[in-house]
Amino acid sequence: MSFIDNIKERAKAVYKTIVLPEGMERRTWEAAEKVIKEKIAKVIILATPTMIYENAEGIDISGMEIIDPNTSGKLQEYVEAFTELRKSKGMTEENARRILTTDFMYFACMMVKLGDADGVVSGACHSSANTLRPSLQILKTKPGAALVSAFFLMIVPNCIYGDNGTFIFSDCGLEQNPTPEKLAAIAVSSAETFRLLVQKTPYVAMLSHSTKGSAKHDDVTKVVDAVRIAHKLDPDLLLDGEMQTDAALVPEVAAYKAPGSKVAGRANVLIFPDLDAGNIGYKLVERLAKAEAYGPITQGLAGAVNDLSRGCNSDDIVGVVAITAVQAEDLANSKPAPAEE
Fold first, then answer.
1. Which residue from 173, 176, 237 is spatially nearest to 206, judged by alpha carbons?
2. CATH 3.40.50.10750 assigned to 149-288
3. Helices 314-334, 180-198: inter-axial angle, 10-degree rounding
4. CA–CA distance, 147 with 38 (Å, rounded to integer)
5. CA 239: distance to chain centroid?
6. Which residues of 66-75 are buried (b: 16+ CB within 10 A; e: fewer)?
7. Could you check whether 3-140+301-334 and 149-288 share the same CATH topology?
8. What's the rounded Cα separation, in Å, for the pair 236 and 230?
């Protein structure tokens, strides 16, 4: 069974409610039809009647719940809750109502915040900033998380490296130029995510243009410092660096560039030193190696909300919906039990 098929089976078992707020995009409707047909999750699409008419022609919408935020019976409840959440920022009910009825991503996040949905998938026709900003404002970081970051799940065909071609690349979508502290937190979070989604042991490589001191530069020092901090955060984590990509992946190269490393030549979680490297790296692998790239998937949020590449197709959306459902179940299981009275 392929990785994504395994994720779909796990999603089916928990059958979460996932909101797709981009009813103005045909790929959303195509993906929703597939999700419902495969019984991966319950789907809610946010759309006006005009959006349905213009984008859903020929698609079976019978199994979908479609909500127009403008006429939703929950609108006033969400307006009041959103106003309360953002009152320190000067939010008024008038502004809250305007935002919730014009930017459906905010409405979707309020659905998760108030327990009316389990997760959100968006970004097919919106920027990452416009997708993630509402999540950060409404849901915020989960307890214990140092920051929110974004990764790609990469499935490389006919690949002997990583976990049979399965990798996490991080951060590829959010942190522009992380400090050593942030880079270490991204590494620890990415390892936890690998355990959750791939269900295998993570081997984390902190990437650089240098391997074990082969080059000297402030950019190298940043990665070296991040390795030290990450080991303090999680002493048992199989993490090493700084190292070049070939040393991280290829055992023969690892043997002479990083002898004795428990990670070099075995890495399946690749931590890039900045967003430029991460974004360029995942796109090269996706296009040149014809890899499946799911993401950018977020980690560290208090709710399961995920972004999409604007170049995604409907099958990509289906995969991210399944991943979001698995994350939502994990978040639900990790919430502390209510205190006994």
1. 237
2. yes
3. 100
4. 34
5. 21
6. bbbbeebebb
7. yes
8. 10
Q: Which two tokens stand for residue 37?
A: 């047909």
pTM (2 d.p.): 0.86
Q: Is 89 helix (H, G, I), strand (E, B) or coil?
A: helix
Residue 322: both structure tokens together:
């399944």
- At the second CATH level, the architecture of 3-140+301-334 is 3-Layer(aba) Sandwich (3.40)
Q: At 146, list the tokens.
A: 């140092």
The tokens for 48 are 């006006």
Cα–Cα distance between 296 and 298 in angstroms, integer?
6
Q: Which of 202, 154, 197, 141 is nearest to 327 (CA)?
A: 197
Report which secondary-structure segment, H or E, holds 224.
helix 218-233
Cβ neighbours for 313, distance < 8 A, ≥ 6 positions apart = 27
Identify the H or E element spanning 54.
Answer: helix 49-55
Q: Write out the E strands in 181-326.
A: 204-207, 239-243, 269-271, 292-299, 304-306
Least Cα distance to 96 among 80, 111, 73, 109 occurs for: 80
pLDDT tens-digit profile, the chain (341 residues): 688 899 999 999 999 999 999 989 899 999 999 999 999 999 999 999 999 999 888 998 888 899 999 999 999 999 999 999 898 988 999 999 999 999 999 999 999 999 999 999 998 887 777 788 898 889 888 877 778 898 999 999 999 999 999 999 989 888 889 999 999 999 999 999 999 999 999 999 999 999 998 888 998 999 999 999 999 999 999 999 899 999 999 999 999 999 999 999 999 999 999 999 999 999 999 999 999 888 788 888 888 999 887 778 888 899 999 999 999 999 988 765 443 43
User: What is the CB neighbour count within 10 angstroms for residue 257?
Assistant: 19
The residues spanned by each domain of the chain are: 3-140+301-334, 149-288
Supply the pLDDT for residue 336: 52
Question: Phi/psi zone of residue 38: left (φ > 0), alpha (ψ -120 to 50 degrees), beta?
Answer: alpha
Residue pair 261/240 in contact (Cβ under 8 Å)? The answer is yes
